[in-house]
Specification:
By secondary structure, the chain is mostly helical. It contains twelve helices and no strands. The chain has a domain of 170 residues. This is DUF803-domain-containing protein.
């Protein structure tokens, strides 16, 4: 079962990376399209984006479902890091982005960091009933953490219109002022695009981690209902509330991920989203399942060290993108 889960995970990550890369490619072609009125060009771009989006959805829905039900966290999280390798390779092949030493270094650091977080942050999970899961959701510590993460997402959302307005102002006024120059780049404008893409990635990673927590809870309810012969759990309204909230989070994280892909390279958005996803996922596990006291000091040290490696790895990829 574990072997099947690993194979599915690798294929799923490769498919997901291909889907993300194709979506990014469609956005690039749309920006570079010299004849926006051409039906053939628009049709080609739409087909490319829809193909990428479909691949991403298939990899997420079917791949994640099999992985969650067959793999423990100690294997699941580092396995996700293989997506970074596929992402870097596909960005180089399809998007013609340079695969430099910084790209390789950043990918390796993020992968090692993800492995450390998963290995030292993984704790055995007992089988829980619907009542147990609902009680965990109602814990004041988890509600405070959930509220805090939502406030962070709201603050980021509030800041995005200001960045967009500044972008439009620069585009409108600087083009007029510097129209006599044949070539003029907008360093501030490019930085604003980069910052906006980073913020979209942060929100996507945050929502993705919460979606995974709800997905695990939903799968646990389903498995418990089948194995323990408790079909009444599936008739409980709380079970379907969890599913509805998970669906909203899943759609929202896809929306913000796609916004980030429109303006920022996949070699930045994907690792950043992965970084935030890992960190929030660990916090979700520690706070939701109340496991902080079960970790040794050495475990906590390596978890923070893993987070540090991921941050350095993403920074390396960011510097490479800016260069």
């Amino acid at each position: 079962t574990v072997f099947v889960g690993i194979i599915v995970g690798i294929v799923s990550n490769a498919t997901q990376s291909l889907g993300i890369t194709l979506q990014r490619k469609s956005h690039i072609l749309k920006e570079l399209n010299s004849d926006p009125t051409s039906n053939s060009n628009r049709s080609h771009i739409k087909i490319l984006w829809r193909t990428g989006f479909l691949l991403f959805i298939i990899a997420n829905v079917f791949g994640s479902s099999i992985q969650i039900s067959t793999l423990p966290l100690i294997i699941l999280s580092p396995l996700q890091a293989t997506g970074l390798v596929f992402n870097s390779i596909l960005a180089s092949v399809i998007l013609k982005e340079n695969f430099t030493k910084k790209t390789l270094l950043g990918t390796i650091l993020v992968s090692i960091g993800a492995f450390l977080i998963a290995y030292f942050g993984s704790l055995p999970q007992p089988q829980r009933s619907l009542i147990d899961l609902i009680n965990l959701f109602k814990r004041i510590q988890f509600l405070h953490w959930l509220l805090s993460s939502f406030i962070i997402a709201i603050v980021i959302n509030i800041s995005l219109p200001s960045i967009s307005n500044l972008k439009e102002y620069l585009t409108r006024n600087l083009k007029i002022f510097f129209k006599r120059f044949k070539s003029f780049d907008y360093p501030l404008y490019e930085k604003l695009l980069f910052i906006q893409g980073i913020l979209f990635g942060l929100i996507s990673g945050l929502l993705s981690a919460h979606a995974l927590l709800l997905a695990k809870s939903a799968v646990e309810i389903l498995v418990n209902a089948i194995v323990s012969h408790k079909p009444d759990d599936l008739k409980n309204l709380d079970s379907w509330v969890i599913v509805v909230i998970w669906f909203c989070f899943a759609v929202a994280q896809l929306y913000y991920l796609n916004l980030g892909l429109k303006i920022t390279s996949t070699t930045i958005v994907y690792p950043l989203t992965f970084c935030v996803f890992n960190v929030v996922n660990i916090l979700n596990g520690l706070i939701y399942f109340d496991q902080l006291e079960k970790l040794d000091n050495i475990d906590i040290f390596f978890i923070f060290f893993g987070v540090l490696l991921i941050v350095i790895g993403v920074s390396s990829l960011s510097w490479n993108f800016n260069d």
